[in-house]
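Record passed on underneath.
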Amino acid sequence: MPTYTPPLRDMQFVLHELLNVAEEYKAIPKHADVDADTINAILEEGGKFAAEVAFPLNIAGDTEGCTLNRDTHEVTTPTGFKEAYAKYIEGGWPALSCDPEYGGQGLPFTLNQNIYEMMNSANQAWTMYPGLSHGAYECLHAHGTDEQKKTYMTKLVSGEWTGTMCLTEPHCGTDLGMLRTKAEPQADGTYRITGNKIFISAGEHDFTPNIIHLVLARLPDAPQGSKGISLFVVPKFKVNADGSLGERNGIHCGGLEHKMGIHGNATAQLVLDGAIGTLVGEPNKGLSAMFVMMNAARLGVGNQSLGLTEVAYQNALAYAKDRIQMRSLSGVKAKDKPADPIIVHPDVRKMLLTAKAYAEGGRALATYCALLLDKEIHHPDEKVRKDSAELVALLTPIVKAFLTDNGWTSTSACLQVFGGHGYIKEWGMEQYVRDSRINMIYEGTNTVQSLDLLGRKILGNNGATLKKFGKLVARLVEEEGVNEKMAEFINPIAYLGDQMTKFTTELGFKGMQNADEVGAAAVDYLRVLGHLVFGYFWARMAQVALKQIEAGNTDPFYVAKLQTARFYFARLFPETAMLMRTARAGVKNLLDTDEALA
């Protein structure tokens, strides 16, 4: 059976030593009183919930899955899931970073994301239920009418009701411009919505008496394509004027998907048959309203793979220290045993360190993005808000795609550490591999994220935002460029930083002549930039660790951080050279292949 220990020490390192969040919050009146002790205390309690309540349900929930009653259209979640959610509400966790106006605690989003990382490590399938609710809250908070906020916000913030996002339909996945769900205006200002939605995570369950669905649909006079999509809030049960539940709405679960992973989460096929909904935001501008939820979800999906990378690493490390197989090639290491622990073997260490480097680099990036969101929303300086918004827009597809690609690589490597036992269910590793695979697909596939990054976020503004991130790299290079002890961390990012401008410009010119060139290069490009971002944070983490060691701090944590940084730059970062070469290979060898693919 697997185990899980919340990585509080590393979280505290990122929050307090790398990003110095408490000092950042002093410039944000809303969070000025949030100090390190408060953050640490909440993280510790959140870790206890993850490890003691959510984690024990993970394997059992995967085995049992969700059950649909086709007569009543009700879904029963795995044993213990509903009770765990009740404890989650009791602890006040849904309200952590929500607006106090609606009963929230008003704490930083950064803290919320760290809690979610631990819950994703503990039980991704379970965590998706409250996670999607938070996205629905964010969307209505930004775009809901006063009446919608009065009706739904307090219940979503408390966790008494949950929420979903309903985009995909059987004939269209990412191409939402093709959706067919219709919304017919009614005399009372509501809409009757008819259509079918699929792949709706947490679309039906037994946690709460009501589920608030955010549904994309078309008005009768809507223009074709994505510019003709509107957003509606459609409750499972209609809500009376006094806030009590009324009659059942015309939306029900018509089926549950049989999936490779996340079996504990109800991935529903939803049927809307004249369901009553109300418009969110302006007509035909539903995608811009929904993007609040979609962008939050993309950061959340990256966080899911970060959580799985961490828990897979922890279990693979423990196994490698305990499992004995063969002798070390350089001589016997465990003389009192018939064989050496497999952790003595170089390739086992490579697999372990890959997961460790991707987990700790991912944690730094994900936490930084959460901090940027806190600054974008609450900082009093308009320029800080604007700069933070631009940077988080640039980094969101990297969090989603780079972290989930790395999560797949890491969970697979950690399974490999177990050898044959990794393939057996009772060890828990094969579930982490299965669960991590969906994260590369939903909320926009990683190819879509790559196209968004290169086509829209970089070439779309002539690299302006990329240059802003480049200035962060250049500042660090200038600060540490003459420090010989930092050379092994600084030189690689300085070199790649210089190359990125030429690399990006070259792809931009090719794309102007043939847009397919962007499509051919985008996935490789995202990983190159992902490594530059990771390299920047790993260099900064190495900088902090070196300063602590030079100051006489003997905590082995800092030595471990340096060793992991060295591994990352020596073994993982060099992938960029290959990726730049393949990105430059052009589109001809992909499209001039009709006979090969006949």
